[in-house]
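Quick question, first post here. What does this chain look like in 3D?
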Amino acid sequence: MAHPKRKISKTRRDKRRTHDKLTPKAVVTCATTGEIHLYHHAYVHEGNLYRHGKMVIENYTSVA
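> Answer (accepted):
Ran it through. Tokens below.
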């Protein structure tokens, strides 16, 4: 099994991990329905499917 020749310092290790972070999801409130949903995603409110603040499908039922 391979072993490192020298110990990697905490600074070097942490430099490698600088991009390993979580970012919050982009959430927006709809002006039409007041529903909180993911940005650029369709959402269901009171049985209807909405996208860009307009009703797309009335009496929507999820397939999955």
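The longest helix spans residues 10-16.
Helices lie at 10-16.
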